[in-house]
Structures are given as C-alpha cells and as structure tokens.
Amino acid sequence: MTLLNRALLVAAFLSFSVSAQTQQCEPWQGWQVFKNHFISDEGRVIDLGSKQNITTSEGQSYALFFALVANDKAAFDTILDWTQENLSEGDLSTRLPAWQWGETGNDTNGIIDSNPASDSDLWIAYSLSQAAILWDERRYSILAAVLAQRIMREETAYISGLGLTLLPAPAGFEFDNDTFKLNPSYSPLFIYQQFSKLYPHSPWQQLHEGSAKLILDTAKNGVSPDWVMYSPAKGFYYDKKTTDLGSFNAIRVYLWASMMANDAPYKAQLSEQFAPFVEAINNRGYVPLNTYASSGKTQQRGPLGFNAALLPMLKEKGDDSLVMAIQQKLMVDKSFTRTRYYDSVLNLFGNSALNKRFSITADGTLKPKWSTECR
Asked: 74-96 burial, b if ≥16 CB within 10 A, otherwise e?
C-alpha cells in the first residue's frame, strides 16, 4: 500500500469516526418537541387541554429525568426551580411537592391538591441524585438525600405480611383494620436499588423487596392492576371502588420493568411474569387499553403512547415485525407528541429506552448515552 493510499484510508476512517460521533451526539429531537409544546419558559410542564391546564409533580419529575438524559442542564435547572417555588412553597427540602397545580379561578393559578405523590417524589429524588453524579453538582446530591429521607419518613409504612411499603401519598391511602390502597406502578425497582447504594443506612433494600412482592403478587395472570387493596387478613383484593382494571397507571409497570438491567434483581421474574401479556400483544398486533388482573383478559385498543411504552419489552420478548410496525405508526402520526402530554411521556420513555439513549445498571445507576459515547 502506497503512502498516499494509507493516508487516504486514515482520513476516511477519521471522517467516519467523526461522523459517527456527531450522529451519537445529535440533540434529542423528541425532547425538543416535548419542551416546545408542553414546558413553559418558566419550567412548568402543562397537561394541555386538561380542565384547569394542570401541572402535576409527575410531569415535573419526568421532565427532570428527560432533561438529564438529553444533557440539558439549563432546562433541568429551570424545571427544578419552578417545581421548588410553586409545588414546594419555595423549599423542596422542607416540603414534598404538591401533586397538582393549575387554574384556581379569578385568573389565578396555584396549588389545587396539596397532597404529594410518592412516585413523583421518587423520580425527582432519583433524577437529582443522578444529576449530582453526572454533572458533578453537590447541591443536587444534598437535595436528593433530603428528599429521599422525607419519602422514607412520610410516604412509607410497615404493613404486616407485606413489609415496608410505599404509600401513594402521605395521607388518604390508609384505612381502618390495617387496610391500604396501593399502586404497583409507583415503584420503579431500579430507583430503590440505587437508593440502597447511595443511602445504605436507610431501609431502601427492604422497600425494594416489599415493592417487588407487590408487583409480582398482583400480576399472577400476566398483567398488572392500576390499583389494589391490601390487608393482612385478606391479602391483595379488589372491591367495587378499586377494581382489577389495569390501564393508564399499569402501563408504567411494564415500562419500568423493561428499563431494568438484565442482571438486576427480579428482572428475570418480571420478564417471565409478563410473558403472557407480551404474547397477547403479539396476537392482537397492538397494546390493549384495558387489562384485568384477576383473569389476564385484555380489551380495546390502547393509544399510541401505550404502544410506544411497550417497545422495549416487545423488543426483548416479542415479535420484531410488530416492533417495526409500531415504530412505523409512530413515525406517520406524530400529532400526539404536540397535544397529548401523557402519551408523549410514554413515547419519550419507550423510544429512548429502545434506542439506548440511556441505560440503567443492575444497581440502578443511570448511564445516559452522552456520558459514555459522546465525550
């Protein structure tokens, strides 16, 4: 090989490497669309079209996670500041964020429901803890630790027969005769694993075990319920108010499970547990809107966001042709990414997990693509 040819090959290789690196580091277009349509300049995530143009702590928590995955520190800080100022009355360290904020009448906005939501609090604390590591910001670390401590103190209970358990909120879900109303989708197991590592002197591992039992024991027929009742005398059960329906909450149970590392605790059990649901989706050709935990039956066609949320799990256990068909539909109909908040959230989670924009290790550590491949 002549010196000239060798030089040309080296130049071509370098050009390819730069091109590949540039491709890996391109801005996350889905996040840009979400920011443009759902997040105000002040950092408020708005559920467009809702009755009072509401903002929820859930929306704020997910936006923090997406901003971190996108390496968008400016947006992260703006969202965090709005959350702290408006949902926590100026100080996240002294008040868990209120669940709902919006129009209160007479052209004013404010807190509509002051009860915190424990799943949102977990996601806020988790995103802060990972941002502290990835962006080397000590103030995030301090705030995450304080939030984690408050969650453990204010939003958990030791339940006989179930162990340490996450309550959906500090108030409103504990009843007479040691009866509780619980939500399996509130517990991403990888967050508990990470907090067990970061805060080893707090009982996060116990909460991890109790939550895994909740998820597995309520999905014995392959599908998860939105809500479930529990008492030591009856175990898990349903009644007229709390049925075995699984829909807009339960869809996240499968999503969180698919985001876990293959060697994470309970990953294999969850994958096996939800195999009947994956098979039902393969047979139908779409993700259903409703499932019924007592029978495993499925019903109706779910929205596009449901299909996007199941992409990672379908990729692992399902039919590749169905994954491609769902992706094609999502490419053709993008209108929901500008008008429907919850579908957009599910889409961002599902597609970014599927495309490896981030990964989560067995101990719950977040690894965004920008932190490993784009430096």
From this structure: ebbbbbbebbbebbbeeebeeeb
